[in-house]
Structures are given as C-alpha cells and as structure tokens.
C-alpha cells in the first residue's frame, strides 16, 4: 500500500480529531457550572453531548451539499472526480437509519460510561469491539476466523482484563471515583461495543459495496441520529434518574434546559462542547475515508495510536495516576488488534521468508560464480598441462 500525501493527511486527521473528541468530552465532564436552580454542579448530560455529536455529523452532509454544488457549477464533471464528492449519490437514505440508531444507542451509552470511569480506560475498552465484530461476522456474514485471528481475540480479552484491574489499582486520581461507578462505567462501555459491532457488520453487509461518499454516510447517519435522539430528549425530561446517572436539579434522565444553562454559564464548557462538535465531524469523515482509501485494518491500527495519545495526555493533565497495568493492558490490546487485523505475524513471516529467499538466491549465485571460476581455473591448468 502506497502512502500518498492524501492518505497521510487522513491518518493524521483521524488520530488528532479522534483524540480531541474523547478528551473534550471528558473535559466537559470534569467542569462545573451554575444550572437552572442557581447551584454549581458537574456537567452530567450524556444525551445532550450525544446530540451535539450527531449535530457535528450533520455538518458533514451540509458540507457535501455545498461542495457538490460548487463542483457541479464548473460543468466539467468535477463532482464525480473529486475525492470528497465522488461516488454513488443515488441511494435510499433510509439504508443508513439502522446504523445511525446503533450509533445513537452506543454513543449515548458510552458517554454515560465515560462519565463514570477514566478517559484512557474508556478508549482502551473500546478495543473489545473486535471480539463482538468477529462473533457477529461469523453469525451474519458467514465468515470463518483463522487461527491467528482467534489468538488476536485472546490477546484482546487478556488486555481488557488487565485494563479492568488497572482501574481499581489506580489509587488516587483527580476524579476520586468509587469502585461501583468504575465497574458500571466499564460495563456500559463494553456493552456499547456490542451495539457498535452490530453497526459495523450491518455497514459491511448493506452499505460497503454501494460506494457512497464518506461525507454523505457520516452526514445521513448524523441526521437520523439527531432527529431520533432530539425527539427522545422530550420524554427523557420526565423519566426519573438518580446519581451517578444524573446530577441535575430535577433528578431526571436528561434535563436539556439545565444543560443549556450550564453551557452558557461557563465559556470553557461551551468550548469543550464545540470541540466535540467539530472534532466528531472530521473524525468520522477521516474514519470512513481511511476505510475506503486504505482498509478497515488501517483504521483499527490508527485507532490504537489514538488510544496511546489519549492515555499520555490524560497522565499529563493528571486526570489519573500512572499505572503499569495500563501499559501491559494497552500492549496486549495492541498485539491482539495487530494479530486479528493481520498486521503482525503474517507480514513479518512473509518479510522473513522473502529475506531468506533473497539470501538463498544470492548464496546460489555466489556458489555458481565460484564453480564457474573453479571450472575456468581447471580448464586453464589443463591447457597448460597439454601445452607442456
């Protein structure tokens, strides 16, 4: 695979914006602001944050429409040649409703979990999606896993276990989380990966071969997600909920007016939400583009790099203390992902065999040259003996 400038740009965009998205969301969870009742409290509004995420994805659809209009005005076929607009635009938008619903449920659940656990653990536990994608692929895509993929799954499960243990061994952190909150948060994040796996399998089965432009895929999924979740914010305003799942004055699942008041009473909180809005749009565009330009394998590996970035920044900001178990857990997760996505053993084996073949061929050439030289010498000796 050739790494062109465009592909390197997409890879960098994926890592940077993905890291910003998780860190800005967690930053918002850390902040306090005055709510509707005049009391200062933490910003615990996961469904409002998820709505902001879908609003950011919707911006991709608006961007696509603007770019398509701009290129089509040239009347030279640019709209079907430019990377951002090229592809199939004649499809039923409803085909993207199921993955949008999966994304909505998974994202909302993960944001609740992120509020209850650590940002680094949140990102590492998302690696469990590999396990569920593998199982669902066997069930719905009739896929058979190779031996190396099973080993990858074993490594991922081992890494997840170590990450889970590290949460309880973290000691002190600026968040002062209790054990029940951490367990609940971690389990919610893992449960969300099951929903995400359904989304990935659905997209592979029904969307992948349609060659839909990346901006349209992200945009329509954002549109459906925002419409449905935005509608659900109304009943959520009346459904009772209590800490740690809720920290608003009315003790309901989502108090949107209170969340909006908190946002506008704290400029940094508003900045964090804007970071979520902007970063998610670029992150999803980069993710879909990396899958189309390169492969889903490359996307998974880059996502591992994002995990490392989030972990390092979280330590630098003292959001949690250093724990060697997280290093071990991350290493096991990375090895598992590489094994599962075939970027470790088989490529290394092929390079080794290629080296050995080249070495054997080189040795063979030297042997033949020595034999030829020996033959020439023998011939010369025979000629001199004959002459004498």
Please characterize this protein's 3D structure.
- With 388 residues, the protein is mostly helical.
- It is built from 13 helices and two strands.
- It is globular.
Topology:
Layout: H1 5-30, E1 32-34, E2 40-42, H2 46-72, H3 97-116, H4 119-125, H5 129-140, H6 147-168, H7 179-207, H8 214-236, H9 256-264, H10 267-293, H11 296-316, H12 324-340, H13 345-387
Antiparallel strand pairs: 1-2
Helix pairs in contact: 1-10, 1-11, 2-3, 2-8, 2-10, 3-7, 3-8, 4-11, 5-7, 6-12, 8-10, 10-11, 11-12
Organism: Frankliniella occidentalis
InterPro entries: EmrE-like, Nuc_sug_transpt, UCP036436
Transmembrane segments: 46-70, 91-112, 124-141, 148-169, 181-202, 214-239, 268-288, 300-317, 323-343
Describe the structure concisely for a colleague.
73% of the residues lie in helices and 2% in strands. By secondary structure, the protein is mainly α.
Mean pLDDT, nearest integer?
81
Residues in helices, as a percent range = over 70%
Total separate domains: 2
Radius of gyration: 27 Å
- Number of β-strand runs: 2
Beginning-to-end CA distance, first to last residue: 65 Å
Major sheet attributes: 2 strands, antiparallel
General shape: globular
| Strand order in space, largest sheet | 1-2
SS element count, helices:
13
Structural class per helix/strand content? mainly alpha
Low-pLDDT segments, ≥5 res: none
Transmembrane segments: 46-70, 91-112, 124-141, 148-169, 181-202, 214-239, 268-288, 300-317, 323-343
Subcellular location: Membrane
Family: Belongs to the nucleotide-sugar transporter family. SLC35A subfamily.
Organism: Frankliniella occidentalis
């Amino acid at each position: 695979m050739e790494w062109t400038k465009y592909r390197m740009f997409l890879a960098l965009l994926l890592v940077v914006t993905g890291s910003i998205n998780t860190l800005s969301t967690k930053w918002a969870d850390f902040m306090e602001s005055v709510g509707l009742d005049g009391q200062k409290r933490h910003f615990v509004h996961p469904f409002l944050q998820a709505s902001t995420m879908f609003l950011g994805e919707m911006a991709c659809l608006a961007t696509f429409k603007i770019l398509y209009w701009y290129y089509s005005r040239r009347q030279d076929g640019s709209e079907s040649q430019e990377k951002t607009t090229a592809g199939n635009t004649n499809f039923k938008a409803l085909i993207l409703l199921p993955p949008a619903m999966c994304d909505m449920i998974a994202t909302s659940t993960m944001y609740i979990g992120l509020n209850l656990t650590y940002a680094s653990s949140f990102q590492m536990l998302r690696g469990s999606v590999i396990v569920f994608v593998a199982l669902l692929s066997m069930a719905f895509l009739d896929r058979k896993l190779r031996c190396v993929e099973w080993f990858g799954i074993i490594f991922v499960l081992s890494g997840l276990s170590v990450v889970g243990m590290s949460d309880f061994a973290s000691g002190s952190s600026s968040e002062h989380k209790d054990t029940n909150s951490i367990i609940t948060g971690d389990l919610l994040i893992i449960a969300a990966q099951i929903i995400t796996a359904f989304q990935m399998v659905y997209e592979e089965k029904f969307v992948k071969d349609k060659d839909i432009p990346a901006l349209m895929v992200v945009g329509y999924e954002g549109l459906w997600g925002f419409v449905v979740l935005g509608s659900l914010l109304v009943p959520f305003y009346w459904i009772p909920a209590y800490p740690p799942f809720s920290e608003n004055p009315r003790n309901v699942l989502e108090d949107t007016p209170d969340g909006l008041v908190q946002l506008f009473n704290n400029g940094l909180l508003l900045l964090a939400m804007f970071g979520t809005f902007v970063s998610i749009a670029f992150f999803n565009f980069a993710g879909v583009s990396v899958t189309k330009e390169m492969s889903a394998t490359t996307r998974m590996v880059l996502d591992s790099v994002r995990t490392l970035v989030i972990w390092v920044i979280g330590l630098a900001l003292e959001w949690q203390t250093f724990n060697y178990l997280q290093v071990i857990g991350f290493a096991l997760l990375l090895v598992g992902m590489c094994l599962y996505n075939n970027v470790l053993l088989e490529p290394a084996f092929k390079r080794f065999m290629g080296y050995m073949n080249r070495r054997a061929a080189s040795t063979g050439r030297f042997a033949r040259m020595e034999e030829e030289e020996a033959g020439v010498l023998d011939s010369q000796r025979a000629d001199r003996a004959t002459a004498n």
